Amino acid sequence: MEHNQTYNKMELNTMHQTLIIEGPITARELQSYEFHKDLVAFRPAAQQHQALIEIADLPEGRIIIARSENTVVGYVTYLYPDPLERWSEIKMPDLIELGAIEVIPDFRGASVGKNLLRVSMMDENMEHYIIITTEYYWHWDLKGTGLNVWEYRKVMEKMMNAGSLVYYATDDPEISSHPANCLMARIGKHIPLESVQKFDQLRFMNRFMY
């Protein structure tokens, strides 16, 4: 399927300063920006910067960023699910994954994450996708936020709701391994019934296994 993208941009006033939230941005644009040293939730900042540049180069890859002048302080990524995950076991060109979302500690609590998702969904092309995200408590910054697992889960759900992602049940073993883990998804307006049925198959692959 064609991976059309429409660029969108907004300004977000925070206590510190005004941030620009924009995207999808190109690999070249991303390369031209500084990457904040505190963006280390998944790997060291320099490595994560490079990983995002590579995602932006993928045909389906989408990167939305929050920046303070020339410095990226937050981002969200969209790409096809990892080939080793269950979500790619049935090949679906109209299913993409919200792979990562991160905001530096200085801007947490300023609705940056919510607005990264809102800007993502301003693109009408997103209505042609099922967008999923898998939330695992072991990825959450419980120590840095001082929240317990359930408080953090509530924060994550509220943030995802800002992008119209909602909870979906699944029998995926990793998600089922802890009650705080969850699958959330947004089914675009132009998704055919056949794709919804395939998504349901992916969600409940263990239904007939004994």
Automatic annotation (TrEMBL):
GO MF assignments = acetoin dehydrogenase (NAD+) activity; acyltransferase activity, transferring groups other than amino-acyl groups
The GO annotation for biological process reads: acetoin catabolic process
Whose protein is this, by species?
Answer: Peribacillus loiseleuriae
Q: What is this protein called?
A: Acetoin dehydrogenase
Q: Which CDD domains match?
A: NAT_SF
Q: Name one Pfam family in it.
A: Acetyltransf_1
Please name the InterPro entries in this protein's record: AcuA, Acyl_CoA_acyltransferase, GNAT_dom
Q: Where is the N-acetyltransferase domain?
A: 25-173
